[in-house]
Amino acid sequence: MRARWFTVGLLAWLWTGVALAQQGGVTTGDAVLDPIFTAFVQGRGAERQAALDELAASGHPDVRQLLEGILGSDLMLHEDSGTIVRVVKQGRRYDTTRLDGSEAFGTVGRRDVDRLSLNNRLRAHLRTLIAGLGLSSEDAGERLAAVNALVDEPDGIGREQLDTLLTSETDERVRRALSSVRARQLIGSDDPDERREGIDALAADLSPDSRRAIARIANADDDEYAAQTRELASVAMARQRALVQRYEIMETIFFGLSLGSVLVLAAIGLAITFGVMGVINMAHGELIMLGAYTAWAMQQLLPQSVTTALLLSIPVAFVVTALVGIAIERSVIRFLYGRPLETLLATFGISLILQQLVRTVVSPRNVPVANPPFMQGTWEVNAVLSLTLNRLWILGFCLVVFALLLILLKRSRFGLEVRAVSQNRQMARAMGVRSARIDSLTFGLGAGVAGIAGVALSQLTNVGPNLGQAYIVDSFMVVVFGGVGNLWGTLIGGMTLGVANKLMEPWAGAILAKILVLTFLILFIQRRPRGLFPQRGRAAAS
Amino acid sequence: MAQTVNKDAGLPEPALRTRTSPPPFPTRRLTTMTELLKGSATLPWLASAALLGAAPGAIAQDDTIKVGVLHSLSGTMAISETTLKDTMLMLIEQQNEKGGLLGKQLEAVVVDPASDWPLFAEKARELIEQEGVAATFGAWTSVSRKSVLPVIEELNSPLFYPVQYEGEESSKNVYYTGAAPNQQAIPAVDYLRDEIGVERWVLAGTDYVYPRTTNRILEAYLKANGVAEEDIMINYTPFGHSDWQSIVSEIQGFGSEGKKTAVVSTVNGDANVPFYKELANQGISAEDIPVVAFSVGEEELSGFDTEPLVGHLAAWNYFMSVDAEANEDFIDAWIEFIGDEDRVTNDPMEAHYIGFNMWVKAVEKAGTTDADAVADAIIGVAVPNLSGGFSAMMPNHHITKPVLIGEIQDDGQFEIVWETSGLVAGDAWSDFLDSSKDLMADWQAPLSCGNYNVKTGECSGQNL
User: Fold this and answer.
1) Is A474 part of the contact surface with chain B (CB cutoff 8 Å)?
2) Do B303 and A366 lie within an 8 Å CB cutoff?
3) What does the mean pLDDT of chain A come to?
């Protein structure tokens, strides 16, 4: 009898041991979290989502950090020991600590730890869970994010809880978001008065969900909504549509202006060299490229602060490309004055040399240039109109550069001499202006501005040896359209071309829009060969 | 136009001087070609040149078997193709360490067609005629392959093409080790529809033959599966397009109609970077509107900050993160060969690995490197792939491959979220286009045809 119980006990113990060994569970150092993380690491599909739900509901004090750690890949599985560790990246290796903060396995290599794998569905679910936890957070931003996550599922929060939050909420944005969720709940209610209240509240909100909700009511059947409700909804819908159209036009114009600002920045240096000296500089694109590479180089030198690197790279790029420009002028272009075709060929050759130089010295591949934090994200004017911050900054930067150049050319001694030389060289020389020196400096100025344009472009597009090739044709296009040698012409010409391109793009497509703009330009040049704002004066007539 | 700047205006024009006396410096007249040819000293020179020119093959085959590597090492495609040249060098070195092929050592002949499509044809001719290569491994863009096609068919030499392409071709001299649309595009669309529940589709591509043809196939496939015309948006952009504002805004508008929307992207090259950046800037995350790309792999991601791309998808037949012993060994060997721990492996590299091993096996089976003998021997050859299985060469010159869908992670690697349970055989002629649904390719006797029409029973005789 005793022997039998003993055997049963032994077998049970062995079986448990075998089962546990087969399971090879994941350890976290916390008994509550062990099964949850084991299910998450070893489970599949819905089991993993359930594990996350369990974690969120567990009431563990660190729930939020754990969820954020999983989402942000800060938690990994140490392969050999099966422990969940918190990791901090050190170069190509990872510093590990246990979840409770104590020492783990020191610094390990990439192959020793396994990421806790995620896919889009789990990521979205994690965000919803984190947002749900954020509703009672101290930080207004977190509360706003939590409420915004609820907007798509207004029934995810109870009416009473919503009313309580509304009365106790102090932050204006969060109140508006909460009201929007409430409006959505009201629309789904059975009471027609509540529905009307909901429709009015929603009509003010131009987001696609609200518009769709209103449209659904307006087009609904007789039995679902009363005629009065439907009529209200139709009126609201029409009003919304008009507003949306207006904002969409504003958005297109913004896109056009931002494209135009890029064109203006690229072309303005060319307007100066082309206008003042009559030199066709095919290496202009490569000067832009050098400016962009300067931005990259500054970021390599100052890796810890992207913002400082970018701001410093503006004057550095100006100086670097101005020196390159002066070198080109002194060594090649000076001997080719009055011979535009030879200048064209020579500068084309220089552009090839510069391209290959960059390919050999740096790399034939693109180099990464990071955006500083203040240039990331959007400014959401309303639900329909959101302006990306990087483009806004570039637009502002373009206008500032333009204003500075205008002041330089109109108000400074140097600018006076440049204008004199470009209007009547002989007279200027007779007045004591050293025209050769002015030529070099003007070319340097044009090149320097191209360098600054390159820094701006590095924030928008890929930086590679071929960057210049993409902008040289556009630069000439803007200069020819706007009128040679005229800064205002360049600004207005560039902005016009940008806006025209963007207006046509939605219905013609990117490629056809470009073709149409070029065709328009050709026809325009037939009528006004000198561009929008031609140069005046007898010497300019030749 | 430009102002005439005459710095010496006002001075008299210098009179033209004509030379009447000999120049004051010594001159040397170079021997002209005629004189060279006439001179007796040139005869032995000519004779040896003739001998060398007449028998390049004989000299080559005595010592080594030459293998041509036709990848751009400069120009726009250098970014993608340089790593394939290095892969071939590694594979050839490994084979030589195993004793070479048919008792001879292999010699790699590397040329640089510089992303210039006509130069691809010239370089292919140089490899086959002058260097006498037994096989060529190369090309990337479809246009480069189309340029090389007439040359290799005229000279009857094989080309192993490692890149995913648009199909609609089966040449006697090309072995397509990259994915056909039914091994990449179609399964990706199935995944989006079945697993993600996508109902609206944006087909965005670069404007050239591969995206255009792939989108034609996908549009036909979607419509055949009940997707309405207004639920499909197609868009093309030029190479290197960087201003994605309006297009991304349109995509966002298209995707906010209440139905789950996805973008199927055949955008090639570095235009992908500003595209993904703009998606991130306008607040469209991979969870809202996922983008599945066919031309974005580990090599393209290794150049830039992948944070805005996390969660977006790619469809390939191999990822560096595949968990298989063959893959671990390959990656270790590759890192050792290239001497850089940060280098990555990608799908076209696996295609070269498979193609090269298939060629070696076929040559050993046939006992010769002669193109026709190899063509007969290679069909049916199966070699291990890097995902733990085998790939076999089909009679239509395509191979069997698994299809994998991966999500981009923040370190530029892919997390595999779905794979086919078995291997998919490449289909050269898409079943979804009217022009090709009746066509099939079979290079084995008795058909020996690249585009055989099963309805009419005729072989059109063309390889394109």
Assistant:
1) no
2) yes
3) 83
Residue of B nearest to A421 (CA): B5
Fold held by A247-541: ABC transporter involved in vitamin B12 uptake, BtuC (1.10.3470)
Of A45, A50, A49, A75, the C-alpha closest to A62 is A75
| β-bridge mates for residue B135, sequence order | B67
Mean pLDDT computed over A115-140: 76
DSSP string covering B27-87:
--PPPPHHHHHHSTTHHHHHHHHHHHHH-HHHHHHHHEEEEEEE--SSSTTHHHHHHHHHH
Would you say B158 and B135 are in contact if contact means Cβ atoms under 8 Å apart?
Answer: yes
Is B456 exposed, middle or buried, given 0-12, 13-18 or 19+ CB atoms closer than 10 A? exposed
Q: How many CB pairs under 8 A join A and B?
A: 129
Kindly give, in sequence order, each residue whose CB lies less than 8 Å from that of residue B370, ignoring residues fewer than 6 positions away. none
Which residue is closest to B274 within chain A, CA to CA? A461
> In chain A, what's the furthest Cα-to-Cα distance?
127
Q: How far apart are CA B365 and CA A125, in angstroms?
A: 55
DSSP state at residue B130: I
Residues 6+ apart with CB under 8 A from B68: B109, B111, B124, B127, B128, B131, B133, B135, B136, B137, B138
Q: Which of B9, B78, B417 sits opposite A364 (nearest CB)?
A: B78
pLDDT digits (tens, 9 = 90+) for B404-443: 999 998 888 899 989 888 899 899 898 888 888 888 888 8
Per residue in A403-452, pLDDT tens? 999 999 999 999 999 988 888 889 999 999 998 899 899 999 999 999 99
Tell me, what's the ipTM? Answer: 0.72
Q: Which helix (H) or strand (E) holds B263?
A: strand B261-266
Is 50 exceeded by the pLDDT of residue B326? Answer: yes
Q: Is A73 helix (H, G, I), strand (E, B) or coil?
A: coil
Helix, strand or coil, per DSSP, at residue B15: coil
Contact status of A252 with chain B (Cβ, < 8 Å): yes
Whether omega for the bond prior to residue A192 falls within 30 degrees of 0, making it cis, is no
Distances (CA, A) of A184 to A195, A219, A237, B47, B430: 9, 17, 15, 93, 48
CATH number of B58-180+343-400: 3.40.50.2300
The segment(s) of chain B belonging to CATH 3.40.50.2300 are 58-180+343-400, 183-322+403-425
The CA-based angle B378-B382-B386, given to 5 degrees, is 125
Domain B183-322+403-425, second-level architecture: 3-Layer(aba) Sandwich (3.40)
∠ CA B246-A393-A383, nearest 5°, is: 50
What is the pTM (predicted TM-score) of this model? Answer: 0.75
Angle B138-B338-B178 (CA atoms, 0-180°, nearest 5)? 30
Considering only alpha carbons, which residue of chain B is nearest residue A505?
B246
> How far is residue B272 from each of residues A70, A90, B241, B293, measured CA to CA in Å?
28, 29, 9, 9
Distance CA B30, CA B22 (A): 18
A119 to chain B, any CB pair closer than 8 A? The answer is yes
- Over residues B250-266, mean pLDDT: 89
